[in-house]
Design brief:
With about 230 residues, the protein is α/β, with parallel strands linked by helices. The protein contains nine helices and eight strands. The chain folds into two domains: about 140 residues, 3-Layer(aba) Sandwich (Rossmann fold), CATH 3.40.50.1000; about 70 residues.
């Protein structure tokens, strides 16, 4: 029986594992417009590293829906987004692509350590993005963007679920992401971050947030992890 190192890797999706063209933003705009029954612009929204619930809640309240009405509208938007994403992937799969080494590194951390998702996507859409590239099998558990507005608060949810699912007490936790919000979430929860520059932020833009590691490609991740003192000889 092979030994697994007790590190939990908490992976972001967009810009880290997969890439979606600008159609993604159009889907959110269309879903909100249909549910709110008016033309919605999302030009003022900062997208990098946000959660779906954060963006959708903001737009719904900007358009005059609060309290119970806001919650009802939010779930209607989630449902519409899921429908539109499914349609997008079925009809134009080329708009979604896997990033270099995402499969190989996800497999490596899954086989030798433990994987978990930490994503701003709603759960259904998260797995829709992973499934075409067979990445879903490496991420049986996670915390998602339809649960908390703040990514920081998703971290303890993800860790708790992973502990229960894997029945393991971890020795270390590493967020693998591509944005400043991944770094902020890691620091707020006193865990490490490995940030890859395959998203929308450059190394120069990421450095002021002081991640533990910045890499240009996911294939650099195993070399970093193997330097940890409690890492098994894999």
């Amino acid at each position: 029986m092979s030994y697994k190192g007790k590190i939990l890797f908490l992976y972001d999706i967009d810009g880290t594992l997969v890439k979606l063209d600008k159609t993604g933003r159009i889907i959110y705009q269309q879903a909100l417009s249909e549910v709110l029954k008016k033309d919605i612009s999302l030009e003022h929204i900062e997208w990098i590293g946000t959660t779906d619930i954060e963006v959708i809640h903001k737009v719904i309240e900007e358009n005059g829906f609060f309290g119970k009405q806001s919650v009802i509208k939010m779930f209607q938007v989630f449902e519409k987004i899921s429908f539109l994403f499914r349609e997008l992937i079925e009809k134009t799969p080329e708009k979604l692509s896997i990033l270099p080494y995402a499969y190989e590194v996800s497999e490596w951390t899954y086989n030798n350590y433990y994987n978990c998702l930490l994503t701003g996507n709603i759960k259904e859409v998260a797995y829709m993005k992973l499934y075409p590239f067979k990445l879903d099998k490496f991420f049986p558990i996670g915390a998602f963007g339809d649960e908390k507005k703040d990514r920081i608060k998703l971290v303890p949810i993800a860790i708790k679920r992973a502990k229960e699912y894997y029945n393991t007490d971890f020795e270390d936790y590493i967020i693998v992401g591509d944005s400043h919000r991944d770094i902020i979430a890691a620091k707020a929860n006193n865990i490490k971050s490995i940030i890859v520059t395959t998203g929308k932020m450059s190394k120069e833009e990421l450095q002021p947030y002081s991640p533990d590691y910045i890499i240009e490609s996911l294939n650099q991740l195993p070399k970093i992890v193997k330097t940890f003192s409690f890492t098994p000889n894999v």
